[in-house]
Task: inverse folding
């Protein structure tokens, strides 16, 4: 039915022309307005030299203009590379350099150090993109081809990398189309729904909000950036916007359930509550079920490389026991295998590493070979499978349970974190002789991060200086929460750094 991601918006503009597509901060636009503005912007971007296959940096806070810009880029056939304006300039420059971005489109100008082959489409911080988009509105709209076919790469999402640098996951139009179809059908999304968009644009959770809303002709309600981390403000947002579908990481939902007053009207309006990105504590699930007795609760599982690949609807039996909440069964047309301790991969194995294949699996990493062992031929001979690195166990009824990682990767505040990337940054500081970063379990945030290091400076001055150094190079969720200084790092009898001993230091 849909041959491209752009065709989702085109169909919504035809079927639901005068329905409100987006509402944020007292502003709104219809589906017809969204498409018209995106087409005009695409024509403007084409005149600026943006062509199919190019990489365009997309750096916006939540706004109507941001969503116009998103589909303006998609309409040209280019690939958007979402960046967070709150990230340190060093990280933004690193990603732009790795992605070889050709153009910049954003509500903020690019930081120093960002190299591009063509022009910059931004002016002063704040509303520079509005000036670009308003001028684009006077341009002839782009018509006809190209808009990227479903097999083309639509976006490049960067995640934490085990080699010390972030890595770009190549998300295809096919993935976004299949996932949005599954979501709208599974959760019966209709034009009457109002869907909150809490996740930032660079986070794969946002794809359900944006593309699911468009496919169904629902109203998308982006959460303003200034209130994203405040439970009381979020509760008022959900009530004022009459939100019917909410999707976020468990840590946000846990805070919403435990720290915010939920009105009866909100409890009746909110009909679907979805969470993904980290383990949801059972106590938080029970609180949510109590506050939203009419809502359908579901746990969605999947790394960025697969989007959502399995899911589980929360049942009364789940609430009654103290066992882990399942990650469930595969979504439509997704195949899974479990690789056992001998490396034998089978759909009948009971425990081991989870492998995933299907239309939502990404087209590999940008740049090719650095992480090539993660994408392998599917065991059934059809297409490519992604090795998740997650350990799972299959119950007797076929439902999957998450049991941890096969490597050091963790989830903190819903984000993937590779301790090795943090260690590389800290180790580059001249005062650091050696360093190790370990996770400390936290019921609200999944994990907190502890950095243990040996330094050439006294502890007080080193901690402040190194923490500031990290903040200038890493996003907030990757900056260690706690620091331990030692003369030298503890080591085991084989001479390797003893990560378990360091974790115990953090617990003491």
Result:
């Amino acid at each position: 039915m849909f041959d491209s991601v752009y065709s989702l918006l085109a169909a919504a503009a035809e079927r639901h022309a005068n329905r409100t597509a987006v509402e944020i901060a007292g502003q709104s636009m219809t589906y017809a307005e969204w498409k018209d503005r995106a087409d005009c912007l695409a024509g403007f971007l084409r005149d600026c030299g943006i062509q199919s296959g190019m990489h365009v940096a997309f750096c916006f806070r939540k706004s109507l203009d941001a969503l116009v810009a998103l589909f303006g880029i998609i309409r040209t056939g280019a690939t958007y590379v979402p960046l967070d304006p709150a990230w340190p300039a060093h990280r933004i420059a690193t990603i732009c350099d790795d992605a070889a971005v050709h153009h910049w489109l954003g509500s903020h100008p690019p930081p120093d150090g960002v190299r591009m082959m063509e022009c910059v489409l931004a002016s002063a911080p704040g509303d520079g993109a509005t000036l670009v988009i308003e001028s684009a509105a006077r341009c002839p709209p782009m018509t006809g081809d190209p808009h990227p076919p479903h097999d083309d790469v639509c976006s490049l999402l960067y995640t934490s990398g085990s080699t010390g640098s972030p890595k770009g996951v190549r998300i295809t139009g096919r993935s976004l189309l299949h996932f949005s179809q599954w979501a709208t059908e599974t959760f019966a999304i209709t034009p009457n729904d109002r869907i909150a968009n809490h996740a930032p644009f660079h986070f794969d959770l946002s794809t359900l909000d944006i593309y699911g809303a468009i496919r169904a002709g629902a109203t998308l309600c982006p959460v303003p950036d200034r209130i994203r981390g405040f439970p009381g403000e979020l509760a008022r947002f959900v009530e004022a916007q009459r939100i019917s579908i909410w999707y976020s990481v468990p840590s946000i939902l846990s805070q919403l359930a435990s720290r915010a007053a939920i009105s009866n009207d909100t409890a009746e309006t909110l009909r679907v509550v979805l969470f993904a990105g980290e383990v949801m504590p059972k106590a938080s699930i029970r609180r949510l079920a109590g506050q939203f007795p009419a809502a359908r609760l579901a746990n969605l599982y999947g790394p960025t490389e697969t989007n959502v690949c399995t899911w589980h609807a929360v049942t009364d039996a789940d609430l009654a026991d103290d066992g882990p909440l399942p990650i469930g069964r595969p979504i439509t047309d997704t195949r899974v295998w479990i690789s056992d301790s001998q490396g034998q991969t089978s759909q009948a194995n009971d425990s081991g590493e989870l492998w995933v294949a299907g239309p939502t699996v990404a087209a590999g990493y940008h740049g090719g070979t650095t992480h090539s062992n993660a994408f392998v031929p599917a065991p059934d001979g059809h297409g490519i499978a992604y090795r998740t690195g997650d350990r799972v166990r299959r119950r007797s009824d076929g439902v999957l349970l998450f049991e941890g990682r096969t490597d050091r990767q963790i989830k903190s505040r819903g984000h993937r974190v590779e301790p090795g990337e943090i260690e590389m940054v800290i180790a580059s500081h001249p005062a650091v002789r050696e360093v190790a970063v370990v996770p400390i379990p936290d019921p609200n945030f999944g994990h907190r991060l502890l950095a243990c290091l040996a330094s050439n400076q006294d502890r007080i001055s080193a901690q402040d200086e190194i923490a500031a150094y990290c903040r200038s190079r890493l996003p907030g969720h990757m900056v260690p929460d706690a620091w331990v200084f030692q003369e030298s790092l503890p080591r085991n009898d084989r001479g390797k750094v003893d990560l378990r001993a360091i974790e115990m230091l953090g617990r003491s």
DSSP finds 15 helices and 26 strands in the chain. Residues 169 and 187 are 27 Å apart (CA to CA).
